[in-house]
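Batch job 17 of 40 flagged for manual review because the log was empty.
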Amino acid sequence: MLLTRLLSLTACFVWGGTSVMSAAVALASPFGDHGVLQRDQPIAVWGTADAGESVTVTLDGKDAAITAGSDGKWLVKLAPHAAGGPFTMTIKGTNTITLNDLLIGEVWICSGQSNMEFVVKGVTNANADIAAANFPLIRHYGVKKQPAQEPQANCVGSWVVCSPETVGGFTAAGYYFAKKLHAELNVPIGLLHTSWGGTAAESWTSKTALLGTATFKNLFVEWDKRMAGFPAEQAKHEQALEKWKVAAAAAKAAGTPAPKQPRPPQGDDSQGKPSSLFNGMIAPLVPYTIRGAIWYQGEANAGRHAQYQELLSLMIGDWRQRFGQGDFPFYIVQLANYMKRAEAPTDSAWAKLRDAQYLTTTTVKHTGLATIIDIGEAEDIHPKNKQDVGLRLALNALALDYGKNIEYSGPIYKSLAVNGNKAALSFTHADGLASVDGAPLTGFAIAGADGVFVWAEAAIVGDTVVVSSAKVAEPKAVRYAWADNPACNLTNKAGLPAVPFKTDR
């Protein structure tokens, strides 16, 4: 067993790229002991072997056989299987690999930047949640951070069984998502966690997809220009680093806090390069059979909202095409409220990015939104309430994928009707419109033909919200929660916050 696992780990190949001969049957990275396979769909299993070698994969008494191609690659699809386990899988060629404690259930990719990377041990009430995390049917596969110049076949990671001893290192948003799904569906849940803090969406999108668009095809030209200046930037960094070392030593001697260490410039092998994280951290998962994906990213693209809707739509389509499993569900966490609260209505890069996230769900099929405009922290870009993030993602999946008759969204703006100096707003997901705290509605701004927005009074009238201001005689547009960190409190009977919006598109 040890020998075959070592052979599996040391055999190297690039799926879809240059292959390197392997001496024995080897499995691709996402397969290992304690893994979760997707139920009720053909199960893709793949790897390498000697060219022309016969490979047989057996799961729960059923076989699938294939002959490795001239490049040594092989892939089989096992027949769909109901949820259950544990099972043993064997992969047999000239050698045999045995995987133990496999479960069959629901598999979801968890990706994005630091808020997806944020782990359970950092959340509010972490100690209590960790102590109660005895869920052996929830499993977590963490992909090691690895940018790459070309699509890779393998990554570094392993499946970990959820327990109080292990859950602290799980993606928090993913864990609370999985916990809710497990409670409602009573099946195993597998999380393929692949995220990296501070990264932009273009890093998670393939080069082929980016080059195929007029908007993004120049990203690589721009990157090459940037890299031309890298040696000079690196030299400046090294000088700054030496000065910092001196200052840090002096601070230590004086018993005072050390200055912040200067960050190195990004080189050609960094996570900031377009497609680098698709290559190193998504491609190795393709074509693992999954149910869908949850996505918690956008902070790094704030300020480029005009591109973001197109970019996110492109990335979703790219992933779907690569995995070859149709338009699998893709659920997006909208940016939380953050930074200083504005005293007057203003424009906002974060509001525009949130709007791009929302608009993506209106144009790309089988997508959904988890709005968290009510749980952010003004001074921390990483809100510690990841319980509600995971719950709201799960509500989307339970309603849209698993047939549960539940509310999954807060109120979403539908239409505007003006009568005199009042504007009446209609919404979908509007059953039981309310103020979450019982106080008067806040967060609404109104403008006339001059486009100057002022704070507005707002009241719930039946299934509408009526908005007005003594300063605006003839309303033309209304905005809600349109700020970096808005004060807003509109909700519905399910307690889900209204999605920020503007009527002046």
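Reviewer: the log was empty due to a logging misconfiguration, but the result itself is present. Confidence is low (pLDDT under 50) at residues 1-22. Unflagging and moving on to job 18.
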